[in-house]
């Protein structure tokens, strides 16, 4: 039996060796950190925060594929899918998981509870009430921190009343649309009810558990005689904001929002936060964790400048003719957005 290899065997050995070397070259260096990102659904506000997050990483010298690896998953509005994504991310053992939205953050925190993987949340209104975190201030026992988008109910009601007053329109009944399955929305609507009651206003609720329920919810509010419709930071309602605006335009009922991403869709006015900047703040926190800080030593970011925006074209489409002199605090536009920052209440 000959000990010499045949030319065919030598060729196969050479090819195998080259393939092995190439696969080794493609392996990321062991010091590259993995950041896992997840969000509950696609809409302008969450997308803006995620874009701000990526910009914040880049500004700090971190780029996907170069010195970090970014994994991203979208739950497409499904809570079950959000839980599956969270479980998948735990298996990746990332340096940090960043969750955009309350449902995604709840899923991730639950999945990570028995691990040492830190979590950063964003696009979350009240992390304490949603049981995402034990308290906003550091230090804490949980391995979680993040950025809250809680906007005081008084600021939201003030925006609505000022615009309706300038348009000489009644403001006795305000409708609100939200998903009762989102803890952040339930908390915000409760706060809005208290503030509305304090100011002698009736707040009428309409719920929507999925995006296809949103436009019918708006129709329901119109049938109940509301003077205006307000959309708080509710992921389901915001994802279907165009349907609400269509109802508002058809029935001459002004639509307001607490979400800056909804402005370009055609609401008459918003009071809210710069989502891109909130995302950059979340990136700042994630970077601190990557560099060795503990999540439970970082307080939740809650103090942000408020942006007031108004669109005269949208106002006309929804039956509002405004006295501009009464709109102190707003930069009024005829289509494109303008902003003015005021201290957070």
Description:
The chain folds into 2 domains: 33-149 and 275-297, Response regulator (Rossmann fold); 153-272 and 305-342, Response regulator (Rossmann fold, 3-Layer(aba) Sandwich). Helix content is 40%, strand content 19%. The protein is built from 11 helices and 13 strands. The strands form 2 sheets. Strands 6, 7, 8, 9, 10, 11, 12 and 13 form an 8-stranded mixed beta sheet that branches. Strands 2-1-3-4-5 form a 5-stranded parallel beta sheet, with helices on both faces. α2 packs across α10 (275-290), α3 (79-92) packs across α4 (102-112) and α7 (214-223) packs parallel to α9. Residues 1-5, 19-28 and 333-345 have low confidence and may be disordered.
Kindly summarize this structure in a few lines.
By secondary structure, this protein is of the alpha/beta class. About 40% of the residues lie in helices and about 20% in strands. The strands form two sheets. Strands 6, 7, 8, 9, 10, 11, 12 and 13 form an eight-stranded mixed sheet that branches.
Which properties best describe this structure?
8-stranded mixed β-sheet, alpha/beta, elongated, 40% helix, Rossmann fold, 11 helices, 2 domains, 345 residues
Topology:
Blueprint lengths: L6 H20 L6 E7 L4 H16 L8 E7 L4 H14 L3 E5 L1 H11 L6 E6 L19 E5 L4 H14 L6 E6 L4 H16 L3 E6 L6 H10 L4 E4 L3 H5 L1 H11 L3 E3 L11 E4 L2 H16 L15 E6 H6 L13 E3 L7 E2 L3
Parallel strand pairs: 1-2, 1-3, 3-4, 4-5, 6-7, 6-8, 8-9, 9-10, 11-12
Antiparallel strand pairs: 10-11, 11-13
Helix pairs in contact: 2-10, 3-4, 5-6, 7-9
Radius of gyration over C-alpha positions, nearest whole angstrom: 24 Å
Based on helices, strands and strand pairing, what is the structural class? alpha/beta
In round numbers, the mean pLDDT is 88
CATH homologous group name of the largest domain: Response regulator
Residue fraction in strands: 15-25%
* CATH level 1 class label of the largest domain: Alpha Beta
* Unreliable sequence segments: 1-5, 19-28, 333-345
The CATH architecture of the largest domain is 3-Layer(aba) Sandwich
Q: What coarse outline follows from CA principal-axis ratios?
A: elongated
CATH level 3 topology of the largest domain: Rossmann fold
Q: Please, what is the oligomeric state? A: single chain
Q: Tell me the helix content.
A: 40-55%
Total individual domains: 2
Q: How many β-strands, per DSSP?
A: 13
Distance between the terminal alpha carbons, to the nearest Å? 89 Å
């Amino acid at each position: 039996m000959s000990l010499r290899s045949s030319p065919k065997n030598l060729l196969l050995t050479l090819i195998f060796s080259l393939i092995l070397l190439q696969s080794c070259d493609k392996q990321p260096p062991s010091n590259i950190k993995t950041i896992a990102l997840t969000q509950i659904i696609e809409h302008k506000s969450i997308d803006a925060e995620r874009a701000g997050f990526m910009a914040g990483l880049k500004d700090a010298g971190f780029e996907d594929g170069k010195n970090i690896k970014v994994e991203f998953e979208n739950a497409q509005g499904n809570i079950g899918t959000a839980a599956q994504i969270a479980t998948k991310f735990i298996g990746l053992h990332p340096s940090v998981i960043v969750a955009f939205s309350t449902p995604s953050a709840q899923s991730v925190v639950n999945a990570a509870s028995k691990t040492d993987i830190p979590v950063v949340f964003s696009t979350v209104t009240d992390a304490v009430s949603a049981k995402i975190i034990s308290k906003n201030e550091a230090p804490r026992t949980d391995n979680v921190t993040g950025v809250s988008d809680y906007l005081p109910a008084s600021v939201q009601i003030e925006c609505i009343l000022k615009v309706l007053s300038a348009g000489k329109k009644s403001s006795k009944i305000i409708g609100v649309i939200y998903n009762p399955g989102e803890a952040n929305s339930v908390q915000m609507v409760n706060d809005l009810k208290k503030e509305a009651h304090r100011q002698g206003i009736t707040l009428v609720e309409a719920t929507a558990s999925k995006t296809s329920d949103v436009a019918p919810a708006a129709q329901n509010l119109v049938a109940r005689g509301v003077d205006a419709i307000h959309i708080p930071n509710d992921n389901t309602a915001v994802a279907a904001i165009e349907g609400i605006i269509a109802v508002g335009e058809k029935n001459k009922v002004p639509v307001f929002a607490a979400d800056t991403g909804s402005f370009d869709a055609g609401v008459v006015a918003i009071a809210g936060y710069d989502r891109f900047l909130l995302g950059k703040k979340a990136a700042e926190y994630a970077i601190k964790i990557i560099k060795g800080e503990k999540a439970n030593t970082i307080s939740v970011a809650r103090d942000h400048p408020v942006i007031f925006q108004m669109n005269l074209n949208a106002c006309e489409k929804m039956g509002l003719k405004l006295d501009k002199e009464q709109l102190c605090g707003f930069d009024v536009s005829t289509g494109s957005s303008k902003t003015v920052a005021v201290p957070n209440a």
